[in-house]
Amino acid sequence: MVPQLLSKGLPGASLVPRMSIEESRISLDFSEVYTSWFHEVSRWSRALGCAEAEMDDIAQEVFLIVRRKLDEFDGANLPGWLYRITSRVVANHRRSAWFRNLLLRNRDEELEAVVYVGTSPADSLEEKQRREQLYRVLKSMGPKQRASLVLFEIEGYSGEEIARLEGVSVATIWTRLHKARKQFLARVSQLGEDGV
Amino acid sequence: MERLRDQVHEADPTRARAADLLRSERPLPRSREREARVRAHLDDTRDRRAILMLRPAVALCTILLAGVASALVGRAVYERVTASATSAEKTHLHSAHRESPARILEAPPAPSLAPTPEQYRHGATHRSFSRTEWHEESHALPSLDALPTPSGALPAPEAALTVPMPPTEKPTATAPPAHTDELEAELVLRAAKALRQDHHPAQALSALENYLQHYPNGALGEEAWALAIESAVQLGDPRASYFANQYLVRFPSGRYVQAAKNAQTLSAH
After folding, report:
1. Residue A16 or residue B232, greater confidence
2. Do B30 and A12 touch (CB under 8 A)?
3. Which residues 20-79 of B have a C-beta within 8 angstroms of A?
């Protein structure tokens, strides 16, 4: 059984679930779907612009919908179906977060949620700054370009896998990635020395 | 397409910096703890589906409740606004009607156009006048100079007259409709014009009798009584004393008390 979403030689390759499309047609038990795809849903939600602090909420909401609609699912392209649900949930979440920020406070939760890791305080600080810059640049990009770029560059998905997830042709994904990279480089070139 | 983050030895500084930024973020590590935590939350919210199915009913009930509450509040507000508008309209109407009669009342009275009591008795149409209350022999025509003219704008009192009428009856507090107010004011205004401008007290008295019969609790009752007293005095009508008595009973502290007392004095002589 060949996994359809298995990436070769990429950082996230070992984390891709070992479930084929054919297999997903046969076994659509919720627990199995949850166990196999939870981590992928979390990755997608981060690529779609969700802050790490909100990932649990997003994943919970996604799988609530999955549990509710699993009986209606026709079994074709389970990753694509999950990805569509995730993208809608993230979009709704971002909209409600925008309203919350508008009404309650004006904070950049996404940047605040950046986790700082490092071997020393100096390393942590440097990494913190770089990650903040990265998220600032990503935030300024369009949602499709951003998702494609993060999935490809950070999460290690291949173009074919992204195309399958998003339900578009591979050529579309390459074009999108090309534009995303161009946009990303333009934004990076605009960053000052201090990264602002 | 080669990944940007994998281009370690990039000559272009922008691309190198971009690659460096991309390398600063790692793929999301798998977290069994997070997976279990979310699963536990999912199990807790298993009954949420039933709640979601109830959502339309809850929404419907909420809308109905909101509608009923809005209707109740709207009705209360409408009633309040209507009441205040009616009150304001009535006040405005009174003030508007006061102007003309006031000017008319302040106009100089006609000194010698009043008919004799005998003339009046032949043409009088009043129904329940008690002649014993009036001493005809003492009725030289009173001069209006002796009868103080009501000064200032006419007030907006309540009074009643059916001839005769129990003197203890007090005006009711019910507010008449606007068109009734207009009719009332029209009658009193007509009487005032007939008395002051046309110098026709008989016509004025007739209009006032009409008014007091139809609007016993009319808003311009006090003015009507005062004008009736004045008209009767000018006519030498023996009912002047009766009108004066009625006025004093109904409006013991009215603005035309002195005129009523003068009329009583005149009729007593």
Report:
1. B232
2. no
3. 20-22, 24-28, 30-31, 34-35, 37-39, 41-42, 45, 48-49, 52
